[in-house]
């Protein structure tokens, strides 16, 4: 290994290792680098997971996130993308076990950022489908808008997420049922919409490349009671699909 | 037609309305491209709107030109698309490294200025200039640690880098001040040896005093107004080299647009004196 490469390996290693034997790390000034790197990484996570911060408080958040940063530092200079593995970290983080919904709330924060930064596209509206004959409609493959995401939680994580983003306490009447959400972006405005299992099934089928006919048939078999026509038009109106 | 660049401001999204509606001769804005490299959404759109209204400079923090590895080709590709879209008046980066083994370390890290490091930086700068289709200017870093293993002084290293790669230089006078304080060297002597003719841009910023275990160090924190000794050094540089586009950088404790603009006005007065003298 070249002199420059071994210097950089040792320097980078010492940033997250207080016990490093790398000589410059023994100098008090090395703390400036350790502090800067940790602060920038924590600022990024704090910015990317605001609902989690609201639920656990800033101090707890930064203490927990620091463990994650040392284990899994950023890999992309676009720090708005940092934290892909943070929900999984929280799911396995023992001190958070009293908040079983925390990892799902983090997942929804993450989907919100992904949606915000996804590519732009023209939404496909109901009027675009209205002109098609039924046969053409059934054979059509709907393209998801690049900013569309969906979310399923065994807990009421969408409601908790929503309240946290608004800085409000969760209503006493909260029902501890599974929840679903569809995340769409209308122009530059990300919206997290209340949804059901059928919305998610329909979006998954479309993403897998099914035609509209195949997708509705598969969803109808699994959820015979569902009004798929209404659900599809709701998704179209929300901007979940894009013109191809 | 746009006139010559005078003093510019580090762009902050909270200033977008003022930035879009204000104009003063020579005003320009600088951004870290990393904050605008999303595929879509509001951030790239905001930069497009800004670039339509004012000259914009791209000041990268992550090409990691002093790393013992070539710059990330995907990052260069995204940067090239941004350069083609916003047509920046200046494109700059740092004499530092920030990537190791696939990780991105969000800081500008130092290295021994060895012959090997010079060859590597020259190659990385050339590779980046080719990929971007633009000349880069490299910024002198802030120092906190006296490292071993230098074959070159920083000013000679930069002069040789310019000669071999054809790049320009971004002179950050706050970094010069902070580094001289931290390493116990003389800021004026450094500036007198700096290859000033290659300077395409000057940075002015505020600094803070480290309150942690590294007590007494000055930290290039960009969270305060430009300090008086830095304005003094700025006057010294202008007297040596004449007017250069000058940026007021601010990244923390962000004040109002007007307050930042006041610092631009102060720089403009000095720039005008040196334009007249030229």
As laid out across the biggest beta sheet of chain A, the strand order is 2-3-4
Major beta sheet of chain A, specifics?
A: 3 strands, antiparallel
Strand content of chain B: 15-25%
Count of strand segments of chain A: 5
Largest interface: A-B, 43 and 47 residues
Query: Beta-sheet strand percentage of chain A?
Result: 5-15%
Q: Number of helix segments of chain B?
A: 9
Low-confidence stretches of chain A: none
Report on the biggest sheet of chain B: 8 strands, parallel, barrel
Structural class of chain B: alpha/beta
Tally of alpha and pi helices of chain A: 12
Structural class of chain A: mainly alpha
Number of domains of chain A: 2
Mean pLDDT across all residues of chain B, rounded? 95
Oligomer state of the chains in this structure: heterodimer
Would you write up a description of this structure?
The complex is a heterodimer of chains A (244) and B (278). By secondary structure, chain A is mainly α. Chain A folds into two domains: 1-99, no CATH class; 103-244. Chain A has helices spanning 3-15, 30-48, 50-56, 58-71, 86-91, 102-117, 126-130, 134-138, 157-165, 197-207, 212-222, 228-238, and strands at residues 143-144, 149-153, 179-186, 189-195, 241-242. The N and C termini of chain A lie far apart (49 Å). The two termini of chain B are 23 Å apart. With 278 residues, chain B is an alpha/beta fold. Chain B has helices spanning 16-21, 42-53, 73-86, 115-132, 154-165, 173-183, 187-193, 228-241, 257-277, and strands at residues 7-10, 28-31, 56-59, 90-94, 97-100, 103-109, 137-139, 168-172, 199-204, 208-209, 218-219, 246-248. The radius of gyration of chain B is 18 Å and the shape is globular. Chain B has an eight-stranded parallel β-barrel. Chain B has a two-stranded antiparallel ribbon with strand order 5-6. A two-stranded antiparallel sheet of chain B has the order 10-11. The longest helix of chain B is centred in the C-terminal third of the chain and has 21 residues, at 257-277. Chain A binds chain B through residues 2-5, 7-9, 11-12, 15, 23-24, 27-33, 35-37, 40-41, 44, 73-80, 116-121, 146-147, 185, 188, and chain B through 34-35, 37-43, 45, 61-62, 66-69, 75, 97-98, 100-107, 109, 111-112, 114, 116-117, 120, 144-145, 147-149, 182, 210, 212-215, 217, 219.
